[in-house]
Design goal:
289 residues, mainly alpha, Farnesyl Diphosphate Synthase, 71% helix, 0% strand
Length: 289
């Protein structure tokens, strides 16, 4: 489809189809938004999904970086009101209506470039924090204006803390899967502390891995607590889409913690029924304490 042929209706259908195809846990939260906010969130999600797919899917390092550079150029075009990609056309309306911050789009791309240049293996705690700020915090910061949250420290703290918490929980769930793809997001300081190898091919059976995961879980729990503390200064009813995700991912963390961190266990999942119950709980009122 040429740039001239991309109507806003076509672009919005493309973004919505991207969300549905991904089967993201964030989907139900987006659907409770008003139409204009929902369209904007679909566009933001489609952008995040597309750049993530560039970093994760096939292709050489050079091809991935070139494709991400193409998205950098598209962000410039969006803010010059001349997007060329279907998702870019959808984002233009969202940027105009909700004043989405340009720098957060670029931070998201930076995070994907970190993966594309990788694979990431045993980053330092500082490098891991830089990574999670980009790939998860940026998504949160782009979402907050769409939800209608006010600018300020509380909104920033909530978005960044929750993004960190979700990403750390994902890392805990996906250690074995990531290792099979040559990646190891666990921080080197914890691996060294617990005598673990810093190579993906040996991590899954390392005797010290359970202790590393337990410490990472506490890091994630502190981030959830920070998000909940920031929420006290915000109107939680505006943030219900994010709270649904928070509830689901805290449940993942709770289930992993309850069963223990022994090696060789299957990846934790949550049933549709559990997700529905979590959604009902967080749609009615968040747990602030």
């Amino acid at each position: 489809m040429s740039a001239a042929a991309i109507t806003i209706a076509d672009a919005r259908r493309h973004a919505e189809a991207t969300v549905k195809r991904s089967k993201t846990s964030f989907g139900p939260g987006m659907r409770i938004l008003s139409r204009s906010r929902r369209d904007a969130m679909y566009a933001v999600y489609a952008f995040c999904r597309e750049v993530d797919d560039i970093a994760d899917e096939g292709g050489t390092r050079e091809e991935k970086l070139a494709a991400l550079a193409g998205w950098r150029a598209e962000i410039d075009r969006i803010f010059d009101c001349r997007p060329q990609f279907p998702t870019g056309v959808a984002l233009l309306a969202a940027v105009r209506e909700f004043n989405l911050p340009r720098e957060e789009f670029l931070l998201m791309i930076e995070g994907m470039e970190m993966d594309a240049k990788g694979p990431i293996v045993a980053p330092s705690l500082d490098d891991l924090a830089a990574y999670t700020r980009r790939v998860a915090g940026a998504a949160g910061q782009l979402s907050m204006p769409v939800f209608g949250a006010p600018k300020g420290a509380a909104s920033d703290d909530f978005a960044i803390s929750l993004g960190d918490a979700l990403q750390l929980t994902n890392i805990l769930r996906d250690v074995e899967q990531d290792a099979s793809e040559g990646r190891l997001y666990l921080p080197r300081e914890l691996l060294q502390k617990h005598g673990c190898p810093m190579t993906p091919d040996a991590i899954a059976t390392a005797p010290g891995l359970p202790a590393v995961r337990a410490e990472m879980a506490e890091m994630a729990r502190r981030k959830f607590a920070s998000a909940r503390e920031a929420l006290k200064s915000l109107d939680w009813t505006l943030l219900r889409p994010a709270l649904l995700m928070m509830g689901v991912y805290e449940r993942y963390l709770d289930k992993m913690t309850a069963r223990g961190w022994a090696n060789g266990q299957a990846r934790v999942t949550i049933s549709k029924t559990e997700k529905a119950l979590i959604a009902m709980r967080w749609l009615l009122a968040p747990k602030l304490t």
